[in-house]
């Protein structure tokens, strides 16, 4: 039995490296074929594209010329589950590289990936985050995904597989062929920071108590859902404090208050300067951790939720 398990691990590792090597080789081949082009769109196997996939990319691609801290534009929101994403007009900055379908400048590939392939040896859906850490850059992601995995491929996965955990939950994907991204110029580094500040200034603060979090963790807190349902078109901010000895522990519990579950074997993605964004019932919701530069002093925060 141990021998068979080892064979599976080696085979999986081999296929994984084969897949990432295939992507790297493909990017290099395209660069040689089109030496005057600046960017390339990479599409993972098994994806279905939204009807506005290219239009979405075209609207945001100008940002590469305006802001060299943007490393890529992703068409996939790793947190784009049903009922917590749904606004096709919104895009965010993220400190995580979600992959799947993305546009990347050849210059970024040459500098941060090609010369350090160990950064990107795992599947793109788990993120090529070492490339971001090396550059201290960001990725643009949509609130509403522009790609989806083929459902049949997901159904064939083992329930214990990380891919199954990530893709088996019901997700939202845009189906409108002509959607405009709201103020894409605000996605540049300086303007995005100010945009978040402006959102917070006009927001409604939702205080989530320790008791609320415990109920959310058990799946028994309907009060927050009712409150969000009664709001419409609002910006709602929730402040929380993380336990330093248990990274993302309280965050994983907090998102359950909005009926969202992050797979236990996957590190949370889509966070920007300790701020996490989602949409629900037509509202924009910002979860802001105590150490974020966007944090505003509120009621006493506790970090010992079990």
How does the SSE layout of this entry go?
Layout: H1 2-33, E1 39-43, E2 47-49, H2 53-60, H3 63-66, E3 70-74, E4 91-94, E5 101-105, H4 106-114, H5 129-135, E6 138-142, E7 147-149, H6 151-155, H7 162-167, H8 189-201, E8 204-205, H9 210-218, H10 223-230, E9 235-240, H11 249-256, E10 271-272, E11 275-280, E12 283-289
Parallel strand pairs: 3-6, 8-9, 9-12
Antiparallel strand pairs: 1-5, 2-7, 3-5, 4-6, 10-11, 11-12
Task: Outline the structure in words.
It is found in: Golgi apparatus membrane. This is Alpha-1,3-mannosyl-glycoprotein 2-beta-N-acetylglucosaminyltransferase. Its main location: Golgi. Pathway: Protein modification; protein glycosylation. One of its GO terms (molecular function) is beta-1,3-galactosyl-O-glycosyl-glycoprotein beta-1,3-N-acetylglucosaminyltransferase activity. The chain has 306 residues and is an alpha/beta fold. It folds into 2 domains: 16-168, Spore Coat Polysaccharide Biosynthesis Protein SpsA, Chain A; 201-289. 36% of the residues lie in helices and 17% in strands. It has 11 helices and 12 strands. It has helices at residues 2-33, 53-60, 63-66, 106-114, 129-135, 151-155, 162-167, 189-201, 210-218, 223-230, 249-256, and strands at residues 39-43, 47-49, 70-74, 91-94, 101-105, 138-142, 147-149, 204-205, 235-240, 271-272, 275-280, 283-289. The strands form 3 sheets. It has a 5-stranded mixed beta sheet. A hairpin with a 2-residue loop joins strand 11 and strand 12. Residues 1-17 have low confidence and may be disordered.
